Amino acid sequence: MRDQFIERLSEMAESDPRVMLVTGDLGFGVLNDYRRRFPSQFINAGVAEQNMTGMATGLAMEGFIVYTYSIANFTFMRCLEQIRNDAAYHEANVNVVSIGGGFSYGALGMSHHATEDLAIMRALPGLTVVSPCDNWETMEAAQALAATPGPSYLRLDKSTAGETNYPGEVFELGKARRLREGTDLTIAACGGIVDEVLQAADQLREQGIRCRVLSVHTIKPLDTAALVSAAQETGGLLTVEEHNIVGGLGSAIAETLLDSGVFVNRFRRIGLADRYSSIVGSQGYLRSKYEMDRHAIIAAVKDLLNGAAIKKAA
Q1: Which of 178, 147, 181 is nearest to 165 (CA)?
Q2: Which site in 171, 186, 245, 275 is 20 to 30 Å from 33, CA atoms measured?
Q3: Do the record's keywords include Transferase (predicted)?
Q4: 3.40.50.920, 3.40.640.10, 3.40.50.2300, 3.40.50.10190: CATH of 177-312
């Protein structure tokens, strides 16, 4: 996703001199071409994320469209005070781009596992939170955020769900995308783990279970209409995220449904249980160990449907 982000950002920088990229001394293998082509639209703030964010806010207040760029935990956690007090409070167009959401940097251990970011960032007033599932969503979101007032958080994954868009499709922030049709249950997910969801949905379809799959790329603001319709039309929701289940996508969807007066008998969240990820390994390995891969998704869908069948029979 990061290559596609830089590709789109380069296109934007070429056509708009207000576009600025500020990095925390990261990603030069990816950023070298951008830096060479747009030296006046690139700043390396060094390993100083607080300064990076403060600098970005100052630029945004002067009319620039700014993107900060670094490894996930360092773009939002180390400089949370500056994001809150500088960028968000002043409604500055600072777009925080995190590379390596979830278990993307699984081999580097807990310090590099970004599993609390969605919860933290969506709690900040006026901040748009986006977690794309593939390269197309990444490129479209990067551009859409430039025209969106206020700060944002763009969470990029090392994995991707492949090509999910169709020719002529128009991307909209705040609008979930329906990737699979189904009436038995809805699976709502965000980020690269949507790939696991699609694999699970396709395997379930072969067994006669048809799940609607939603890519909820925008966690804030949520697509309330799509989620309410899905809950009412399929009778239940399973949420999947490579993130702590507390405060993330699943929590946001549950809040939205209840606030809308929608009550479903079948609802479950798949993600990291309320714990730290203490295991080291590849992204796929950690998804399996923490029961959020396609096998866990298939098992959860069947359990939800079986539970509903038992209640109906009773």
Answers
A1: 178
A2: 171
A3: yes
A4: 3.40.50.920
